[in-house]
Design brief:
The structure is a single chain. The protein is elongated and about 70 Å long. Helix content is 7%, strand content 45%. It has 2 domains: 209 residues, Single-stranded right-handed beta-helix, Pectin lyase-like (Pectate Lyase C-like), CATH 2.160.20.10; 189 residues, no CATH class. It is mainly β and 496 residues long. It is built from 3 helices and 31 strands. It has a 14-stranded parallel beta barrel.
Length: 496
């Protein structure tokens, strides 16, 4: 027995020694971090990263504990590993300040938050081969949800920010209260984000001017801004497309912040007020769209208690070759599908409106869609949306449109910020499309729950239309069995 215990003790000691001194792994505790939730660990963490980088690369390890920190500066060929129970927390700005936002001569062409990266809890620029992974938590306790140049010194507004980098992996971590952006990736090529959970007070993940991106198995709860958002801003001083992107097996929602992670899923973020838009939490393209979006596919994803899918190009970039398939939505605040070609033009040189063409959306099921708007597709005069295909669409609206609504004539608002509520209530309940060349709608089923006086479909300045097997509940009815086929000849003005 004594010999057995002695051997076991040697094995445990050897394992502990091996773990602590394993080549290529740099435990932050060896550099002075204590993880007690009180000490400021910024210097220790950055020293561990610098040491790993100087050795040619390695993994900086955070074991169980809470590590208060200011800006953590990533280096090439270095990974951060957050063990189970490890928390990296944004510390108080007077003791653990984030770095100041760096100068950017192009910051007038997009929001301040999209123009700066250094004012973040974790940031990196011009990096190769980096990763952040593990089952731990990044908690942006003191990060600001706003983004402006007048924030107090030391304020950070992003949990993770990456600029002009390559071969980046973010996997398995959880981010709580991520500030203006929980993750902002700008000019990042070969980006993989997998099995990440985000519960935050503004944007979940923004992918801006990036190429070769894979986003999978994510859950993002963001009641006050977008969940998963593709951008193509002018923040890098060039109109660079976001292209070659796959988004699959993801969930987005707009529950109260923090209630996704604690499992209560509260819904006190309500509709009403001047904008009447409800929680956000969606998947969106735009609004920053200087470089456009190309070769993007989104599939097998779920929207809950949030706004619907939005595809927007308004700053001169081209949006082409987009495929969206197998999306389920419940309790949607605004248009379940919003496609907008506009002319805001926040790009140098006053560019012409970018193209929108070859967009395919299929296998969409939605219920509890609020009454102001149905599917909303709007180009602008002389700049139509081209080659749009919608197929196998089933949407159940709450209803509530009045006879007076049928006379509404939504303004064009070519230069306005794109958002479904910019057009107010629509004169139809299911599908409003204008300035479109090449519209193909097949196998669609539109219905409503409560009294509805508006017709289902209205098309304006739409040419080359092909509609087949479209069924819609007749205004004034309440029973699903009163669904009635729509005949294209009657669809341009009114459905019935």
């Amino acid at each position: 027995m004594r010999r057995t215990h002695w051997i076991a003790a040697l094995v445990v000691a050897a394992m502990a020694t091996t773990h602590a001194q394993q080549p290529g792994r740099y435990d932050v505790s060896r550099f002075g971090a204590v993880g007690d939730g009180k000490s400021i660990e910024t210097d220790a963490i950055n020293k561990a990263i610098d040491t790993a980088a100087a050795a040619g690369g390695g993994t900086v390890v955070f074991h169980r504990g809470t590590y208060l920190s200011g800006s953590i500066r990533l280096k090439s060929h270095v990974a951060l590993f957050l063990d189970q129970g490890a928390i990296i927390e944004a510390g108080p700005i007077d003791r653990a300040p984030c770095d100041a936002p760096e100068p950017n001569q192009w910051d007038t062409f997009q929001d301040f938050g999209h123009s700066h990266w250094h004012n973040s809890l974790i940031w990196g620029e011009n990096l190769d081969d980096v990763a952040i992974y593990g089952t731990g938590l990044i908690h942006g306790t003191t990060l600001s949800r706003s983004a402006n140049a007048n924030s107090p010194t030391g304020t950070g507004n992003k949990a993770i920010a990456l600029k002009n980098s390559r071969n980046v992996t973010i996997r398995d971590i959880t981010i709580s209260h991520g500030g203006h952006f929980a993750i902002l990736a700008t000019g990042v090529d070969n980006l993989t984000v997998d099995n990440v959970k985000i519960d935050t007070n503004r944007d979940g993940i923004d992918v801006d001017a990036c190429r070769n991106v894979r986003i999978s198995n994510m859950t993002v709860n963001s009641p006050f801004d977008d969940g998963i958002c593709l951008k193509s801003s002018y923040g890098l001083g060039v109109a660079r497309a976001t292209e070659n992107v796959t988004i699959t097996n993801c969930q987005v929602s707009g529950f109260d912040e923090g209630t996704y992670l604690d499992g209560t899923y509260k819904r006190t973020v309500r509709y009403g007020g001047a904008r009447d838009t409800g929680p956000t939490g969606r998947i969106k393209f735009g609004t920053e769209s200087s470089g456009g979006f190309k070769n993007v596919t989104i599939n097998n994803s779920v929207f809950t208690y949030c706004r619907g899918l939005a595809i927007e190009t308004v700053d001169g970039g081209d949006t082409e070759d987009i495929t969206i398939d197998n999306i389920t939505m419940r309790d949607i605040a605004t248009a379940p599908i919003f496609i907008r070609r506009g002319n805001r033009g926040r790009t140098p040189g006053d560019p012409a409106p970018g193209t929108m063409k070859r967009i395919t959306i299929s296998n969409i099921v939605a219920s509890g869609v609020r009454d102001p708007q149905g599917i909303l597709v709007s180009g602008i005069p002389n700049y139509p949306i081209e080659d749009l295909r919608l197929s196998n669409i089933r949407i159940h609206y709450t209803g509530g449109g009045t006879r007076a609504d049928t006379a509404l004539d939504p303004e064009e608002k070519e230069k306005d910020y794109p958002e479904p509520n910019m057009f107010g209530r629509l004169p139809v309940y299911a599908l409003f499309a204008r300035h479109v060349t090449g519209l193909d709608v097949r196998d669609a089923d539109f219905s409503f729950e409560n009294g509805e006086a508006r017709p289902a479909v209205q098309l304006r300045d739409v040419v080359r239309v092909d509609m087949d097997n479209i069924r819609a509940q007749k205004p004034g009815t309440t029973a699903r069995e009163l669904l009635k086929p729509i005949h294209l000849a009657n669809a341009v003005k009114e459905t019935y």
